[in-house]
Amino acid sequence: MLNRATIDLANALDHYHADSPRPGAWYYWLILIPDKLGAIGLLLGDALDPAVRARLEASLIHQLKLMRLSGANAAWEARNHAYLALLQGDSQRLARAADRIFGTVRYSSDGGVREDFSYLFHVATCATTPWVGMNSAKLSK
C-alpha cells in the first residue's frame, strides 16, 4: 500500500510542479490539489521517500506563496498553508495560517461553523444536493 501511494504521489507531482501549466480553473490549483497533496504528505510522514517529499514540498511552496483568497476559499487556502507548515515544521507559517483561518471562519447559528462544529456554507437548507439547494425557497412554500 505504501509503495502504491508513493508511486501515485510521484505521478501526481509529475503534473503539479513549478513549471507545469495551469489549465482550467484556479480552484483546483490553489485549493483542491494542495489539499490532497498536503494531506498525503502528512499521512505518509516519515514513511515518504525523501526525494518524493522534497518534490512535494517544492510543489506546495511554489503554489502557496500568498494567502489572497476570501470567504470559505480563504479558510481552505489557509488550511493548505497549515499543511505545508506542518510538513516543514514552520511555526511562523502555521501561525499565519491559523490567523487567516480564524479570521475567516466564525461561529454562527445561520452560517459558518456552528456550535456542534458542523459547517454551513451559505444558509441552512433541508438538503445539500444541488437541485434542492437551488430550489429550497420554492420547496418551503
Present the secondary structure layout:
Elements: H1 2-15, H2 26-44, H3 50-63, H4 71-88, H5 91-104, E1 112-113, E2 119-120, H6 130-140
Number of domains: 2
- Output the structural class: mainly alpha
The main sheet orders its strands as 1-2
Following the backbone from N to C, one meets helices and strands in this order, namely HHHHHEEH
Rg, Å, rounded: 18 Å
Number of strands: 2
How far the N terminus sits from the C terminus, by CA atoms, comes to 52 Å
Overall pLDDT, averaged?
81
Q: Biggest sheet: strands, sense, closure?
A: 2 strands, antiparallel
Count of discrete alpha- or pi-helical segments spanning 4 or more residues: 6
Enumerate the spans where pLDDT stays under 50 for 5 or more consecutive residues.
124-128
| Share in helix | 55-70%
- Overall 3D shape: globular
Strand content: under 5%
